[in-house]
Amino acid sequence: MDTALLLSGVVALGIGAQWLAWYLKQPSILFLLLIGILIGPVLHYFDPDLVLGELMFPFISLGVAIILFEGSLTLEFDEIKQHGKVVQMLVSVGVVITIAIVALSTYLLFDVDPKIALLFGALVCVTGPTVIIPLLRSVRPNKTVSNILKWEGIIIDPIGAIAVVLVYEYIISGGEANSLLLFGKIVVLATALGMAGAYVLAFLMRRHMIPEFLRNVFTLAFVLLLFSVSNHLEHESGLLTVTVLGVALANWPKFPRDHILEFNESLTVLLVSVLFIVLAARVELNSLVSVGFAGLVLLAIVMFIARPLAVWASSIGSDLKTNEKLMISWIGPRGIVAAAISSLFAIRLQEYDIQGVELLVPLVFMVIIGTVMIQGLGAKMVGNMLGVREPETNGILIVGSNPVALLVATSLKEQGFDVIVAHNNYTNIAKARMSGLRTYFGNPVSDHADRHLDLIGIGHLFAMSMDKELNTLSEIQYRHEFGEQKIYRLKFSDEKVKSERQDKTSNFQSQWLFGKDVTYTKLASMLSKKARIKITNITDSYTYAQYKADNKQFVPLYTLDKEGKLHVITSKFDNEIPRDRRLVALVVEDEVQPKAVDVTAKQEQARALADANFDNTAKAPEKRKEKELLAETTKTDAAMATAEAEANAEMAATDKAAEAKESVVKTSDKSAGNGDGKAPKTADGSLDPQRLPDTQADKSKKEDI
């Protein structure tokens, strides 16, 4: 078959597997490995050794080097300290326990060299964010479990890679006492080259000697060159060199890491998509079968002995409950680092004639497929049994921090819903935080938001920013995450119900918030007239018709049924509200008029009884359980809050005038939508790395974890 057709087909299948994983909200590695095995050893359509020939080994080597560099570029030492003692223990003591138990079990179950058993143990100690995060979104464990698993996966990825590379370097150095000098030489050379490379690259970037359009490709070329030079100077030292390079750059002051990460992540997706299919296509089915019953025993040890022991040892002295420990013990699927590096090392170690090398790849692939399928498919059931799953995603993500958005967010929070206010205006976000709302400071459609915006328990989007482009991008970004029926948008006066563009792209048209005739201008005008949120039970004794007669100027926002379910008022509203609903509306107090018809005492009593019955039988909306803060906010946080309050006081007069007229409002918020509010800076003048005004509160929560 035509080589170009085969290679382009592999790329298409790889990206298709990534899309399928995104659509089904499952780990992509499972689909990639299954496709590779299917087109390779099962159907014999693709033989990587025959197609790639002598390029096979360099392709895998360079691909793994880039994956390791991208992973190590995410390892910030400060970040490890911020995510609680359990996470710190899992990525240190937990790693050692896992490696020791798995290595010993492998040595006892199979006829392998102890060094190969140790390498296998190091390979399967890594979970990885690409496998964990899709599972968390699907399973929805509680906040404590989610935070631990999420940050363990992110931090252990580069730490596990370093452990694997060090074990590998030890093996190729001979592993004997007289070969420790060679091992030390490899480590010293790789460390020196990595640090020197980091200094050179950081120097060039910080002095702006590399133009913006060349930064990403320059970094890629630099990494590949450094990898090859290191291997040339000392055999097999390149992987450790690029890992050290990534860790050094991740912690280098003022290095533009985010821009490099954005490019490398895209490149890594492409490489992983192709590399995993190539690696899986090289797996021999006979080798997978050859591990037999002993392989299944080893898989059981990895899942039910090594992982629980690591979790229990790491959680000593913590406040984790037994059911939370069990859930963390259950979720531990292996991922990218294990599959990619094991295949590369298996190829390279063949020339060293070490006993058991041929078992390395089938054992790793068996553990990956077994843990992803068993733990992934069984996680929901286990979570339900242990009672650690969050309820259905009924929380709300509100994009925008203007006064109307904050008013709606506060009312939803008071009704018991999880609410996150996301925007890039620091002053407004600080105001939201001070009023007790969960916040995200930054662009809600950025890569940073993908990694840091916690959407567990969130199932609705209210696009309420006065930056209409941001609203549109948010709708597109979260449409798949929440579903089309749970995306809502606040209208502005110049936005017609259907413009020409919406006619052409009607699939991107969201539901209008609070009715087809309700605009931001109308709501802001009502706020300027001291409108308030009014909560009323609509019952047989007090109908919506009576409510309309009582309230001359009001806008219904949403209703709650007796099950605590949210029903948002949209452009489809038929001006009728069923009985046994709690109506939340914005009402202008000065316009509240008494009923024209006198109300008898009996009618008042019936209404009071109906209200009492509604309140007694109605359920509060289920929400994710938050741990109480165990520590007071620090003096720094208090000082920042004081400064924010002063800034808010200075802006109050301007805000009142701006809210009344849309033309003025638009002008003021256009800058707000672009992040005109100033965020605090660190001592060296850089942006606060946490990006969240809630830093101190979050820290106290994470310390408890």
Description:
By secondary structure, the protein is of the alpha/beta class. It has 30 helices and ten strands. Helix 21 links the parallel strand 2 and strand 3. Helix 2 packs parallel to helix 14 and helix 21 (426-434) crosses helix 28. The model is unreliable at 497-501, 626-674 and 678-705 (pLDDT under 50).
SS class: alpha/beta
Overall helicity: 55-70%
Radius of gyration: 29 Å
- Give the overall shape, derived from the CA principal axes: elongated
Put simply, the count of helices is 30
How would you sum up the major sheet?
A: 6 strands, parallel
The separation of the N and C termini measures 55 Å
How much beta, percentage-wise? 5-15%
Strand order of the largest sheet: 3-2-1-4-5-6
- Low-pLDDT segments: 497-501, 626-674, 678-705
Mean pLDDT, to the nearest integer, reads 75
Number of strands: 10
